[in-house]
Amino acid sequence: MKYMLILNATEETENATGAASSEDLDKMGAYNDELIKAGVLLAGEGLHPSSAGARVEYAGDDRVVTDGPFTETKELVAGFWIIQAATKEEALEWARRIPLSDGRVEVRRVFDVSEFDQDNEYVQKEKAWREEHGESRTA
Q1: 16-62 pLDDT per residue, tens
Q2: pTM of the full structure
Q3: How far apart are CA 55 and CA 36, in angstroms?
Q4: What is the 3-state secondary structure (H, E, C) of the chain?
Q5: Bridging pattern class, strands 77-84 and 2-8
């Protein structure tokens, strides 16, 4: 099963003026190495602060774009990992190992294409795309 480990933003990540410190990079790099060596890491990235982003809100046919920054940091994402884990408990164990001194990580299971109506045209197209490009890719 795939799980997404969602790193919530903090005041520190939202006010970052550049890349992480060398010490933080070393800690996170060592953690990522553990994930790679265990064969569970499928994807993972850090995100720029919301001040460099935007939101699109949907109301019927209307689309409203709002440029960042956004004030509610507890609702923002600072980064993520997608891992392959046999159980939720295994995914939680990997989340517990993330080298954070403060903050919050949400652990969520990712839907698998097999969980959707297999007769649906777009499900069939996605299955074909995944077969062509590799199952571990995310759509």
Answers
A1: 776 678 998 999 999 999 999 999 999 999 999 999 999 999 999 99
A2: 0.86
A3: 32
A4: CEEEEEEECCHHHHCCCCCCCHHHHHHHHHHHHHHHHCCCEEEEEECCCHHHCEEEEEECCEEEEEECCCCCHHHCEEEEEEEECCCHHHHHHHHHCCCCCCCCEEEEECCCHHHCCCCCHHHHHHHHHHHHHCCCCCC
A5: antiparallel
In total, the chain counts a number of residues equal to 139
Tokens of 65: 């774009």
Question: Which of 24, 32, 18 shows the shortest CA–CA distance to 102?
Answer: 24
Nearest to 8 by CA among 79, 101, 82: 79
